Amino acid sequence: MLKVQSSEFILPKDATTGDDACAYSIIDNALLISVLCDGVGSASRGGTAARQCVKFFIDQFKNRPRAWDIPKTMEVFTRHINSLLFKESMTQYGKIELLTTLCLAVIEGENLYTLNLGDSRIYLLKKEGELRHLSNDHTMDDEYMSHVLTSACGLSENIDPVILTTSVAIGDTLILCSDGVYNLLEENVFTDMIQKGLGASTIIYSATQNCDLKDRDDMSLQIFRIEALDPLYAIKNTPLIIPETLSEGQIIDGYTLLSPMMEHRRIWKVIKDSELYVIKFPLKAEDDEALDAFVHEAWYAKQITHKAFGQAWIPENRSMRYYLMELIEGVNLLEYLKNRTLSVDNAIALGKFLHRAEAHLLHLGLVHGDIKPENILVYQRDGEAGVDFKMVDFGSIVEIFSTASRAGTPTYLAPERFSESAINESTEIFSIGVTLYWALSGKFPYGEIEPFQTPTFKSPKRPVTFNKNIPLWLDSVIMRSIAIDPTLRYRHYSELFYDLKSPEKVKPFFCTSTPLIERSPATFYKIGFIILLLLEMITFYLYVTK
Length: 546
Hints:
The chain is α+β, with helices and mostly antiparallel strands.
């Protein structure tokens, strides 16, 4: 996961908006894009061009074609916004009025990609203290004019942007600034301020202390101190073969393929040195999105160490793209409960197990994303009575609060997930509740929901309706877990776990549509008694005053 300590600030020369603009975004926790533009003052719409340019890059990078690499993305987008600004200038004003400098920097993995037009600058301060100038000042001086821009965004219809690639490391600092900043600060002073950890606003105000307003320009500065780089980039870009076909008896790095475990033949039972394992390959050989998903899956699987999950690892010396898992002999919960329901004791144990599994993922900033009977293995404990559980399917795991994924199986999804709300503890608890409801009753509270269907949720029957063995406290726990209204549902795993281990403290749960006589018979009869008493009093009053 990419992490940076960021600081940015713009100080206009006067009280107006100014002509500088800057912004940044971290996309998918893996890609930093930073844009800084200084609208050219001699052009009447320079500030507009700067703001338009910054917004364009931030918006477009979030929706970039994933098949494009970063240099191609930067080049195509830069040519496009340059052409738009130039054509709009010619159409609206008949001359160049939408004109701005451009600094564009992108960090992906261990690479920093930079591009600039004009005289705004990009620096990289290495953790060892070396300040590197990564941009060129596109200016010229002659006997008639000084500091004339030879390149800028919107200056001509066609441009040839140059993109530099530089390696970065944790501890390095990326800096973007307009000429209003570096013209007032000696390079050694500027470097010293950055090394001391000063923020953008502090540096800019320090630079203005000893200069007159007429001697300075708009000032904009962005600082990004790299705290962590995305480790998945290096894994994804390691050149490894993805086999198109796999067959029984094939040997890969000493692992002999015994039998496929899924119809798509990308998950196999294998043997090496008399030990059995599971090996998993990407689904498709030539698909960048599928590869990206597989890399994330393998990485997440490697981080998960709780006994609720099977162990997974990525061998260091692989000749192909795959990862390994321990083989767990068992059947999934769906198969285990064919023609029967789960006992109450085992259902309580299952609820506590799912809490432990999800709590471990939460510690890693993750959620399972697809809790359902098919992803829960049931196996016999060695030398003990009863059963135990294991969670499977690392492919569904996503970062908590993700909104870009509709991971999961529709029948088990919380209502808000169908409107692309973020995945969180509450939505995962809903899936746990549906799983327990089904395991104890053989029914789904809201029926089976087809993929891509947007269902209408109505108050479900209580699970005790179908299974009289369910104690009322557990019935309430399940109903609270699957509440349609998120405000009525458990918000955190710890709340669910507390009720599962403290039956005597569980409060009865009723849907908002449940009649009062069911929710509180005493209250219902009390209100009824009061109403009847008032009617009797009114009747008596009318009788005696007649």
